[in-house]
Design brief:
- The relative contact order is 0.17.
- The chain is α/β, with parallel strands linked by helices.
- The chain is globular, with a radius of gyration of 16 Å.
- The chain is built from 5 helices and 7 strands.
- It starts with 5 loop residues before the first strand and ends with a helix.
- Strands 1-3-4-2-5-6-7 form a 7-stranded mixed beta sheet, with helices on both faces.
- Strand 6, helix 4 and strand 7 form a beta-alpha-beta unit.
- It has one domain: Rossmann fold (3-Layer(aba) Sandwich), CATH 3.40.50.300.
- It binds guanosine-5'-diphosphate (GDP).
- Guanosine-5'-diphosphate binds next to helix 1.
- The site of guanosine-5'-diphosphate (GDP) has 17 residues, from helix 1.
- It comes from Brockia lithotrophica.
Length: 188
């Protein structure tokens, strides 16, 4: 693996703070606790996201510039019911404003140990209605047997009418990270 330059650029807490830049953006979204921070750290080979995700921290859109050429964008986790209504509304508005900026590709993370969720269905419906390209990514597959992986993959394809099988990944073992990289490279 060639070495990359990975630079944390900053966070947007409001729609006005969203980055406006011609360089392509690759967004990562999923329910809180899906393993998004872990996957992004593993992907970038750097512990960039851990500290930003301590429970109770204000949710934001985080930007990381890779090779000075494109962005990894960490979107707020959803489905965290314990937040106050006002905060949930802020996050929804921020995410909606973010998608209006039209990322090049959005990775929707799905926990391999958890059955398909309505919240994820909403995310796919949202991306489809905006005509934004996306790719499903299953996380934590190290915790699944071979049969369970196949079953999870099938279940997600059916539940969300996916046209491509999800990428099976593990931040723990590094499995599937190459496929995520490839999806990014193909879209650049
Ligand atoms: P986030 O809230 O989506 O950013 O999720 P985190 O990255 O903080 O991970 C949530 C939980 O899932 C933590 O307890 C992690 O240890 C666990 N986790 C994350 N990635 C993996 C993985 O690849 N395999 C397993 N078995 N657990 C994971």
């Amino acid at each position: 693996v060639k070495s990359r330059s990975v630079e944390y650029v900053g966070a947007a807490y409001t729609p006005e703070q969203l980055l406006r830049d011609v360089r392509p953006q690759f967004a990562f979204i999923g329910r809180s606790n899906v393993g998004k921070s872990s996957l992004l750290n593993a992907l970038l080979g750097k512990d960039i996201f851990r500290t930003s995700k301590t429970p109770g921290r204000t949710q934001a859109v985080h930007y990381v510039l890779v090779d000075g050429a494109w962005y990894v964008v960490d979107l707020p986790g959803y489905g965290y019911a314990k937040l106050p209504q006002r905060e949930l509304a802020r996050i929804a508005a921020l995410t909606e404003a973010y998608f209006a900026e039209r990322p090049r590709l959005t990775f929707v993370l799905l926990d391999g140990r958890i059955p398909p969720q309505g919240k994820d269905e909403e995310t796919f419906a949202w991306l489809r209605s905006l005509g934004l390209p996306f790719r499903a990514v299953v996380t934590k597959v190290d915790a699944l047997s071979r049969a369970e992986r196949a079953q999870a993959s099938r279940r997600f394809v059916q539940a969300f009418s996916l046209s491509e099988p999800p990428i099976l990944t593990s931040a723990r073992t590094g499995e599937g990270l190459g496929e995520v990289w490839r999806a990014i490279r193909d879209a650049l």
